[in-house]
Design a protein that fits this description.
single chain, about 500 residues, alpha/beta, Rossmann fold, Four Helix Bundle (Hemerythrin (Met), subunit A), 2 domains, two-stranded antiparallel sheet, serine-type exopeptidase activity
């Protein structure tokens, strides 16, 4: 399945390593955001709206909603405003409110105006709306993003922003305080949609969660495993083996102390320091993410096969030669050398200014803080069932969290944050109704989502051979029978939640 540049962006695999930056010859180049850096910490987003999308719909209206900075402290009267959009184009009197739940990115009308959810809204006569998540875009509850000011970036705070805004929309915008409410979200936004239904069943009538990571985990080793499976499925076993050989050969060179060879092969700015364990981890992490990024260039999963063709070319004697040659050529225009310094690795996470480009456009400091304090999702290579070696461990990500936000983020603090997230929301057994979880078979987030779940009015479906976000696009002639079935399933469930007699049970 090839996604056009006008379609939704793939995030979970579009992850460029932060080390592909310019050498120290130019301060401007050092400070420049490397291509794809926005994907570095968007592990939970699944997909994002296309960058630069601007609504052409005159019925899409902007608004600002006043919310409390801290919903749980009656002694704190501070408020802030967050952005929202709404559209009454398809609304029929007495119809429901359909909300696209915003994630870790600036507000964008794309999913509200171009999606299967929009099409179902048109059928149901629904009013459409979408919100901007606190701390992102122009919705800032604090004057800067210092660690102290990030304390209000908590999922429970976000859910109360959402539910109070929905109540406002029903009363003041729609003029129908009893309007039914259906939520939809992708990736982290999908998790929020399902949790809002769980927390506020008297207000939220149903939620469709696509690629929703609802099980927090510090050791997200399944991610690399699933990427390896995608390489086998869309590339070849030979390609998988080439990558496996490359990473193992690199590990052997490190163990033998022959890092000069690696420094030359990958054109590092400084010699790889075999005594610096974090630098070694960063080297392997960069190799892995750079390959993953190249494999979905132009948001085309079929590009995996093209990358694999290059890696398996007969001109290369070894997997390490193939991978190094490919990465040097792939990123030749993006940097003069690979900067492996840990300082460079965390550079974009330490800027506390709201108007810093990394924070405004990509939300790096904010979203990474959320990972460090509530979700984890650290992409390690500790599983033996993947091709990217064994050197990327939890230690790298813990060091990253501490460098960005302080030494108080100990291993115990991070583990406790993840434990509480799963405890509060039920992880992969939330005991919930009126939620449909959909995932693609070729979606690494599937492993932290819900893929089997059936009760009276809730279900889960994995679409065979589907990539991330394929189920949220409008029905087209390019859909497989299985993908079409998933979209029809979502439509029927939503109709059921709104009171239709359509049966939710599927074969």
């Amino acid at each position: 399945m090839k996604l056009s540049s006008a379609s939704v962006k793939v995030a979970a695999l579009l992850l460029l390593a932060v080390i592909v930056v310019a050498s120290g010859k130019s301060i401007d180049k050092i400070r420049r955001l490397p291509p794809g850096i926005e994907r570095m910490h968007s592990r939970r987003e699944g997909i994002r709206p296309p960058k630069g999308y601007v609504s052409q719909n005159p019925r899409t209206v902007e608004g600002r909603f006043t919310s409390r900075v801290n919903h749980f402290d009656p002694q704190n009267p501070d408020t802030f405003e967050f952005n929202y959009l709404h559209n009454d184009q398809y609304y029929r009197e007495g119809g429901p409110l359909f909300v696209v739940v915003g994630g870790h990115y600036p507000i964008n009308p794309y999913f509200m105006e171009n999606s299967h959810f929009r099409d179902v809204a048109a059928l149901e006569g629904a009013w459409l709306a979408t919100n901007e998540h606190r701390y992102f875009g122009g919705s800032n509850p604090t004057p800067d993003y210092s660690t102290e000011n990030l304390v209000f970036l908590r999922t429970e705070q976000v859910l109360f922003d959402l539910i109070e805004w929905i109540d406002f929309l029903r009363r003041e915008v729609m003029g129908d305080p009893n309007a039914r409410v259906i939520l939809h979200g992708v990736g982290y936004g999908g998790a929020l949609a399902s949790w809002a239904r769980q927390r506020f069943p008297s207000i939220i009538d149903g939620a469709w969660a696509s690629s929703a990571p609802v099980r927090a985990t510090t050791n997200f080793e399944e991610f690399a495993v699933e990427v390896g499976n995608i390489i086998r499925a869309k590339g070849s076993d030979e390609c998988y083996n080439r990558i496996f050989q490359a990473f193992n050969a690199a590990e052997n060179l490190v163990d033998a102390g022959e890092t000069d060879t690696l420094s030359e092969l990958f054109n590092t700015c400084e010699p790889v320091d075999v005594e610096n364990s974090l630098e070694i981890e960063l080297f392997f992490f960069a190799m892995m993410l750079s390959l993953e990024a190249a494999m979905v260039e132009d948001y085309d999963i079929d590009n995996v096969a093209r990358v694999c063709d290059a890696l398996t070319d007969e001109q290369f004697d070894t997997g390490l030669d193939a991978v190094s040659a490919f990465l040097l050529d792939r990123y030749a225009n993006e940097r003069e050398c690979f900067d492996l310094s840990f300082e460079n690795f965390v550079r974009y996470l330490t800027d506390e200014a709201i108007d810093a480009p990394a924070n405004v456009e990509f939300g790096l400091r904010q979203s990474n803080y959320h990972d460090c304090t509530e979700f984890g999702y650290f992409e390690t290579t500790t599983s033996p069932d993947q091709p990217f070696g064994t050197r990327v461990t939890y230690d790298l990500f813990l060091a990253e969290c501490q460098a960005a936000y302080g030494e108080w983020l100990t291993k115990d603090v991070v583990y406790e944050g993840v434990r509480l997230t799963n405890f509060h929301f039920g992880a992969d057994d939330p005991r919930i109704t009126n939620v449909l979880y959909t995932n693609g078979e070729l979606d690494p987030l599937r492993t932290v989502s819900i893929t089997e779940y059936t009760n009276l009015l809730a279900n889960a479906r994995v679409t065979p051979r589907a990539f991330i976000g394929g189920d949220i696009q409008s029905i087209s002639g390019m859909d497989s029978e299985e993908l079409l079935e998933t979209k029809k399933m979502a439509e029927e469930y939503i109709s059921t939640w709104l009171g239709s007699p359509i049966s939710p049970f599927r074969k």
